[in-house]
Amino acid sequence: MRRYFGRKLLVYALTFVVAVTVNWMIPRFMPGDPVAGMLARAGVSQPAAVEAMRVYYTNLFGLDRPLWQQYASFWGTLLRGDFGISIWLFPTPVSTVILRAVPYTLGLMVPAVLLSWVAGNRLGAFAARRRLLDNTVLPLGYVLTATPYMWLAVILAWGLGVVAGWFPVAGGYSFSLQPSFTAGFLLDLLHHWVLPFLSLFLVALGGWAIGMRNMIIYELESDYASYLAALGAPARLIRRYAFRNAVLPQITGLALQLGVLVAGALVTEIVFSYPGLGSLILKAIQNQDFFLLQGTFMFIVIGVLVANFVIDLVYVVVDPRTRAGMAGARG
Amino acid sequence: MTAAPTETRPEPRVVRREALHFAVRNGKLVTGFAVVLVLLLTGLLGPLLLGSAPPNEYVAAPMLPPSAEHWFGTTTFGQDVFTQFVHGLRTTFAVGALGGGIAALIAMVVGFTAGYRGGLPDEALTMLTNVILVIPTLAVLLVVNAYLGVRGVAVQGLFIGLTSWPWAARAIRAQTFSLRTRDFVDLARLSGLGTGRIIAREIAPNMSSYLFMTFILLFGGSVLIASSLDFIGLGPTEGVSLGLMLQNATQWSALQLGLWWWFVPPGAAITAVVGALYVANVGLDEVFNPKLRTT
């Protein structure tokens, strides 16, 4: 088990280093001069102002020093939790802007991911080897999993929001309210949360259902299932054993899908102008706020790494073979 | 080759004919590929048949609902949605082919090398694969594309390909690993064939169906990632794509104005292409894997 965690942590540490390095490299090694680009987009015409901005940005990036010093100081500021100053919300620090948005993204993603995973697994396990259900769940699952997240969000916003008028289609809460811990505000928050949650939930559901269905069919054809059947065990018992075995690859699948799920949450937030990281990224891009964009990137990477580690912990609890130091741990 | 002894040579041909026999009778495969083919032809021929009108040209009154003249209606600016749609389809297929192709190529190089060589190269490549696997693809692409001033379809496809290969490399490595100790590979090694030729002539052909299915999934994944990027506003700076159409529709409040003909077709087309590919993939699996055949 120590070897299992040691290896995992090594991968995550390396991933973090790679992500930071990529984050450092992109502005410096992309074609074109980032400072010149920023100045051009700022649209300042007075030569004095342009010169002042050039000096400011060059100092900020530390572009006048040797590369290894730039790299070292990049790590230094990062480890101090300093992600720079947001240009869009000048002079708020990037970390403050991001921390304000993170609760909304987490509040949307965590329930959507967990519930779709649980419901998808149930649905898939239930549909496997039942002809009628299989013929409806499977095609529907493929359509859902092929749907772009933002398109389902747009369709839901249009159908249930604009046409039916049941749910608001923009924002995290009504503009007339101030965030507070009153029943009225929390209900309003929930009301705005339903549609983005639903669209995330539905797209993810399809993939889990298909995965589970295929795994259950595979498990039901294995030797232990046939043996149990030959012993006269009830079908329900066999299915329960099959489910327990089939859940393991689904946990691995959850870790592998995290990147896609984050991407889905980001575009869904943009559709609903939900005040999470997705809307932040949109604002950062529209305002050419590269510090904010890169800060958000680092936050997403850290979040995905933490989630991966949590999934590893869960895997050890669920699969006894990893505890005994035997095979069975995921890659 | 034709003069080769009959008891060894006909085998691949029989296998291929058998696969074809099941392929044309597999509903999933035929339907899936038919949908993709129809949309591909629309994307390839549509722009030619519609003449040289640029897709972003203002051609009619704004906000017209679908009619005989404008099949998918017009946008808030009086652009023809159908013209944008066919051009967008073309872009979508281009990004899918390019991104999926590059990713498949990298996955094959990494997977074959790691799986066949084993030892230290395997350790290093597996570590690299695992590291890149954990990094959220879209987040990297966001930063990269934000710094690119001028963005084209080719560059978009290239970067998608460069970031989306890891899971495929892992799958190919596992397959190669199980093939490399088979007798026919040992025989090839004993007869003095080089590593590259063994992989190209003994290992790859034995998993060609698997490789093709991996490419299909990578293609679908590229299409979805590209549409997300376009939607966030980091799509091609010139031209149209289905993701850009969705972005424009939401940005210019097509939802509030009730212009459903603007945002329904592009999303439906992406879903149709990717969904049809997934379904065709299941069909292919049934064709090549006798255990899964139900009929």
UniProtKB/TrEMBL annotation, chain A:
Q: What's the short name of a Pfam family annotated to this entry?
A: BPD_transp_1
Question: Which GO biological process entries does UniProt record here?
Answer: transmembrane transport
Identify the InterPro entries for this entry: MetI-like (IPR000515), MetI-like_sf (IPR035906)
The record's CDD domains line, in alphabetical order, gives: TM_PBP2 (cd06261)
Q: Which residues cross the membrane?
A: 9-26, 97-119, 140-169, 189-210, 246-272, 292-318
Query: How does it sit in the bilayer?
Result: Multi-pass membrane protein
The protein's superkingdom reads Bacteria
Where in or outside the cell? Cell membrane; Membrane
A Gene Ontology cellular-component term? plasma membrane
For this UniProt record, give its keywords in alphabetical order, as a comma-separated list.
Membrane, Transmembrane, Transmembrane helix, Transport
Looking at the record, the residues that make up the ABC transmembrane type-1 domain are: 102-315
Task: Identify the main location.
Answer: membrane
Protein family according to the UniProt entry = Belongs to the binding-protein-dependent transport system permease family.
What's the name of the protein?
Answer: ABC transporter permease
Q: Which organism is it from?
A: Nonomuraea rhodomycinica
From TrEMBL, chain B:
Q: Quick check: keyword Cell membrane in the entry?
A: yes
All copies of domain ABC transmembrane type-1, residue ranges: 89-283
The cellular location(s) given in this protein's UniProt record come to:
Cell membrane
Residue spans crossing the bilayer? 29-50, 93-116, 128-148, 154-172, 210-234, 259-284
What domain of life is recorded for the organism?
Bacteria
Q: Name one Pfam family in it.
A: BPD_transp_1
Its membrane topology: Multi-pass membrane protein
What's in the keyword line of the UniProt record? Cell membrane, Membrane, Transmembrane, Transmembrane helix, Transport
**Which GO terms fall under molecular function for this chain's record?**
dipeptide transmembrane transporter activity
Any one GO cellular component localisation term in the record: plasma membrane
Homology family: Belongs to the binding-protein-dependent transport system permease family.
Query: What protein name does the entry list?
Result: ABC transporter permease
Origin species: Nonomuraea rhodomycinica
